Amino acid sequence: MRLLVVFFFMTSLILFSSVYVSPEFFPYTGLLPLLIPVFIALNLFLAILFLFGRIRLIIYPIVVLLVGWKFFPITFQWNQPSSAENDLVILSFNAMYFNQAWSPKSKESIANSIEWARKFPADVKCFQEFQQDYSTPSRNAIKLISEEGHFQHMYHPFGGSKKKSQGLAIFSKYPIVNEGTVFDNKQNNGSIFVDIKVNKDTIRIYNTHLESMNIPAEQLGELDGIKKHYRETIRKLKNGIVMRATQVKLLMEHISNSPYPVILAGDFNDVPYSYTYFTVRSVLRNAFESAGKGFGFTYNRVLFFLRIDHIFTDEAFEVHQFRTHREVDYSDHYPISAKVSLRNQR
């Protein structure tokens, strides 16, 4: 029993430390943080077991839980929403191409997805996997969501034709005074930004879609699929983790040079127990941690327990509310939104 407890103790501490080790240098260490929830649960079970058994070994799981306490607030929150006079509402939505690439015959599903995105009352709307179709009026997402110019926009396509393409998009009801690209992998991942003028202040908004895993969720949800494809799955997980480590390094360098207060939103394709999340969290605050409620899961497929879509802000902002819109199931990601305000508006 003592050997087993010591093993759990040492392994837990190694796992907790792995979120600070870049997968660029040690690729497979990026897989270790995925086991953190499992070992926290094991140590919690041991602590309860030893408490009732009055076993002195309880000191080991207690120390682990104290050291790993930082993982509890990134997992579960119970904040009460508040408001401010000058709330700024941010929406982030991986729209899965508004279903056009997946169910091109489902006109109703496509129309509902675009219509929800158009009607949602946000001041700034960030879309990943945004599909633009100039040839079909009912699927001309830029025209519909911008409300024919009421919202200014930046659209960065990754590929396609002049008539139909996919990419990243930001819509703002406030004037866009500057825009740019942080990185672009020429496929479907990248990061863009806009500077918007809100009254007398200028704010920089980043919309990011970090490297995807390209692993079918249904495959991970079936035991036979895991056995058959486990090597390929591990390889894709490792490659995705390494690529995201490189991308987040570029992103944070760009953010550090921003002359304006920053809001970062998007699909990070990474859970809170990751090098990516903790790298961003070391500089910016996560809106779910500040004003979320529950677990905030954002993935709408077999692995429903994943929170991989995030909104971060710097210290200039106060976060009043964070929501995961689980009632909106048009995509494989649920939309997320946050209400924020500048702490010292001029």
TrEMBL record:
GO cellular component, one term: membrane
Swiss-Prot/TrEMBL keywords: Membrane, Transmembrane, Transmembrane helix
Lineage: superkingdom: Bacteria
Domain Endonuclease/exonuclease/phosphatase span(s) in chain numbering: 93-333
Gene Ontology MF annotations: catalytic activity
Matching SUPFAM superfamilies: DNase I-like
Biological process annotations from GO: GPI anchor biosynthetic process
Listed transmembrane segments: 31-52, 57-78
Keyword Transcription among UniProt keywords: no
Name under which the protein is recorded: Endonuclease/exonuclease/phosphatase domain-containing protein
Origin species: Lunatimonas lonarensis
